[in-house]
Amino acid sequence: MLLPVILAAALMNAAMVAASAVSAILIADDLGPALAGLPNTAGVLGTAAGAMAVGRWTARLGRAQALRSGYGVGVAGGALTVLAGVGAPVALLFVGMFLLGVGNAASLLSRYAAADAAPPSRRSYAMSTVVWASTIGAAGGPFLMAPSQSFASGFGLPAIAGPFLLALGAVFSALVASTYIRRTKATDAPQVRRASGGRSVLLAAGVMVVGQLVMVSVMTAVPVHTHLHHDGLGLLGVMLSVHTLGMFALSPLTGWCIDRFGPRVVTLAGLIGLLVAAVLVTRTGLVFTPTLFLLGYAWNLCYLGGSAQLGSAELESRVESSIWTVSALATATSPWLFTLGGFPVLAVISVILAVPLLVLVLRRGERIVVLR
């Protein structure tokens, strides 16, 4: 069952990348550059809401059908973005991006479908493989945007509609791939028990949320930083690519480490990585770009290490929703904080958030037992 899960996740990620990029351009042309970020905000909010919806659908319909429902909503969103791209009221773009966000939530939560189908000793590796698939979508989607514009123009449509058509085709393909995901009975999925019950779950969720908050806060400020230093888009592109590789490329290694050493060790490494990156990002020069890779991989360790400790669809969806709500908050506040004091201000906030969690994780040594 792993292949259709991976394929659907990669296609959905490609759809989000394409639609997010061109939607900002469309709004900048129609409503002005100051409002260009609104469609992506709608996508983030749709992902947060979608995570909760997919969680409820999972409880009622099962994991496989819940994922298909999420991708189906994403198809509707993709269709609305195409309509906006060919001249329909721009309000449809915001609705479309929100609905695409629901599909994105299904993609993110699909890692647990892979875990359900894997043997207990390989659950984290299966999850990490799905996260790794996001690299394919993130890297491949942008390369298809220019050809998609030529495709749209060839049919007499506005060139800007091309990437939206690409997004629609990708999310529809994700829906088709999801039909091959087999239903996993609840009795077949591993049950996770913890000696400390809800406290370990809350701690795992806190690690995931803080990892997201620190990563998004810093990375939202990076374009502002490069602009102020007149570094140019070429260098910015390298920085973003290096960071994206850190986020996703080593996911299988993270999964292997979780299965081999346990999630506690991995989350500890992630929190330490966040702290080191927060300190190093205040420095300029050659160390800056490698630091963004470290920041991305620290996020990966926190994200997958925390995910391995969640034991129900309801918890999974709630945490995912919290992560994307935090993303919206961090995206909105990071530039303002950066203007107050640059990366040192963001570093101080990161340390304040991460150090208490690091202490708590060090103090809690419960063993996580996976039962069949």
User: Which whole number gives the mean pLDDT?
Assistant: 85
Low-confidence residue ranges: 186-196, 366-372
Instruction: State the share of residues found in helices, binned by percent.
Output: over 70%
The largest beta-sheet arranges its strands as 1-2
The termini sit apart by 19 Å
The main pleated sheet reads as: 2 strands, antiparallel
Task: Outline the structure in words.
The chain is mostly helical. The chain is built from 13 helices and two strands; from the N terminus they run αααααααβααααααβ. The protein has a two-stranded antiparallel ribbon with strand order 1-2. α10 packs across α12.
Summarize the structure.
The protein has 372 residues and is mainly α. The protein has helices at residues 2-31, 38-61, 63-85, 91-117, 123-143, 145-154, 161-178, 198-228, 232-248, 251-261, 263-280, 288-307, 313-363, and strands spanning 191-194, 368-371.
